[in-house]
Structures are given as C-alpha cells and as structure tokens.
Design goal:
Elements (H helix, E strand, L loop, with lengths): L5 E13 L11 E13 L3 E5 L6 H8 L7 E6 L2 E2 L5 H7 L3 E4 L13 H11 L7 H13 L16 H13 L5 E5 L7 H18 L2 E5 L3 H7 L2 E6 L2 E7 H6 L4 H8 L40 H5 L4 E5 L2 E4 L7
Parallel strand pairs: 3-8, 3-9, 6-7, 7-8
Antiparallel strand pairs: 1-2, 1-4, 4-5, 9-10, 10-12, 11-12
Keywords: ATP-binding, Nucleotide-binding, Transport
GO biological process, one term: peptide transport
GO molecular function: ATP binding; ATP hydrolysis activity
C-alpha cells in the first residue's frame, strides 16, 4: 500500500448535530455523529466501514462528500481541502467523487426514465449535449452495468430491486469518477443479486481504478470486497487494518465481538458467540474515557477516565484502545 498514491485523507473529521435550532456552537447539547475520525484512502483501494446502526458510518460518508457540512476537520481529496470549497466549486469537484445511496428506489426520481436519470449529470456538467452521442454513451454504460439498453425508456417502478441498484451504480459511474462512497448498496438485495452487484463493482474498479468507501453491516460482504476495514463505534474509528489481519487478529474488544458474531455457513460446526453486554450509549451523552468501556469485558479504571489514543500495534494496524495489542 505504501507505493500507492493517497486519493483521500480525512483529518480529525467531526459532525455534530445540535439539538437546538441553528448552527452548532461549542458546548451546545448535540448528537456527536462523527467524532474526530482520521484515515487515508489509496487509489484503486476499497475501504470497508462496519459497525452497529447509529455508529455514524453513513454520516461520515455524507460529510466526506459534503452533503453535510462538517463541524470540524479536513477532507483532502487529491491534494485539495474540500471543506473550504464553495457550492459552485464542489459542483465541479463532484464529477470526480460520487455517492451510491442505500435505497435505490427513493434515490431515483419516479418521474424520470432511466435515460434521463443517467443523462442528467452528463448534461448538467456540459460533458454531452442531447443527441446520438449521448444516447450511445448511455446505452453502452447500461450494458456495462448489466442492464439491457432497450430498458432505457422505462421508469424506476418497472424494475426489480437489483436492477434499480444497477441504475444507481450506472448513475454514479456516468461521470467516470475516481472515488465513490457506497452506502450499503447491497443490504436490501437477495444474496444472489448481492454477489452480482459486488462483482460488477469490482469489475468497474479494476477497469477504471476507482477508489471505494464501502459502508455495510454485513461483515462477510465487507471481507469479500474490501482491501482494508475500519470499525466504527459511537462516531469513532476504533480499529483500522488490512482485512485479513483484522479478521484473523482483531485487537479491539468491540471488533472481536463483531467478528465473533459472524455465522459459519456449515451446520456441522458450532461456534461460541461473543455477546456484547448492555445497550449502545447515547450519542448525546457519550461515556467518559473510552466510549466502549460500559460494555467492555476488559475495562479497567483508566478506561473510564482517559480517552485512549490511536496506537499502531502492528504495521498499518491501528487501534483506539488502552490495551490494544494485548488481547
């Protein structure tokens, strides 16, 4: 990974939602959806993000692409800090950074057929004008995404869930971006359709050298598609490492419990599940010290008092835990 170029660098990114109307001011009661996350993404790499519902995965993705205005921190994309860009500058930059939404039905305009859905970004950015060239490009894009080109004048309600997700992927690829955030793109699909969509995304990545941030609850899917995996808990990145390393040798108690809960697809084998005790704390009143300490079976006094620093326990294996590397 060292020889690859960094396409995206996130530095101490925070996104707080104030409970009162208006902009957030320091000290105001707020939901700390993303609370000081830092990482790098390399060209042609897939970084998987996992964690329980409400941990801030989707908010992180939307804040990186500036659908949400960050409270604090930097997002460096190809050497430029996008948090300092105006709306007009971001519009231009979005040719190169795209988003695949979780629900393909609600993210597609029911009044626009597939042709107009895929043509809209191309026309808006002035890449094509209406005519035979645009039509040929869109039909070729549909073929690449596994959609028959004669479907181009159909509407979203005329497609299955898997086909609608392919339309969403085709729309994100229309401008030939180098970076795509995928927010649970296969969570609502059948297993057979999931594999088709994931294989399509991997093929497109190899062909165009696209970098993905892949957000999902499904750790098996994340392992299949990702190069590295980041584990989030209450707005923080508690562990980040190569996928084989993190699945074979997790160093944070929360990661251990998540991986221990992955079912084995073999009824003859039994596996002892590691159950995490207690409820997820509130994102408004987060626990002092380590956020995971109320549920951690290894918690000690220091965990309740001091926020753990991120440690590199092995080369490129980062853990936010006082005892990371000792489990």
């Amino acid at each position: 990974m060292a020889e690859k170029n960094v396409i995206l660098e996130v530095k101490n990114l925070k996104k707080y939602f104030p409970l009162k109307k208006g902009k957030y001011r320091e000290g105001d009661p707020c939901v700390k959806a993303v609370d000081g996350i830092s990482f790098k993404l390399y060209e042609g790499e897939t970084l998987g993000l996992v964690g329980e519902s409400g941990c801030g995965k989707s908010t992180l993705g939307r804040t990186i692409i500036q659908l949400y205005e960050p409270t604090e921190g930097e997002v460096i994309f190809k050497g430029e800090d996008v948090t300092k860009k105006s709306r007009k500058e971001m519009r231009k930059l979005r040719e190169d950074m795209q988003f695949i939404f979780q629900d393909p039905y609600s993210s597609l305009n029911p009044r626009m057929n597939v042709f107009n859905t895929l043509a809209e970004p191309l026309l808006a950015h002035g890449i094509y004008k209406r005519g035979p060239e645009l039509e040929a490009y869109i039909k070729d894009l549909m073929d690449k995404c596994g959609l028959p080109s004669y479907y181009c004048y159909r509407y979203p309600h005329q497609f299955s869930g898997g086909q609608r997700q392919r339309i969403g992927i085709a729309r994100s690829l229309a401008l030939s971006p180098s970076f795509i955030i995928c927010d649970e793109p296969v969570s609502a699909l059948d297993v057979s359709i999931q594999s088709q969509i994931i294989n399509l995304m991997k093929d497109m990545q190899e062909e165009k050298n696209i970098s993905y941030i892949f957000i999902s609850h499904d750790l098996s899917v994340v392992k299949h598609i990702s190069d590295r995996v980041g584990v989030m808990y209450l707005g923080s990145m508690v562990e980040l490492a190569d996928k084989n390393e993190i699945y074979a040798n997790p160093q944070h108690p929360y990661t251990k419990a998540l991986i221990g809960a992955i079912p084995i697809p073999d009824p003859s084998k039994r596996k002892e599940m590691q159950v995490i005790q207690g409820e997820i704390p509130s994102n408004v009143n987060t626990p002092s010290g380590c956020k995971f300490h109320p549920r951690c079976p290894f918690a000690k006094d220091i965990c309740k008092q001091k926020v753990p620093e991120v440690k590199e326990v092995k080369p490129n294996h980062f853990v936010q835990c006082h005892f990371g590397g000792e489990f």
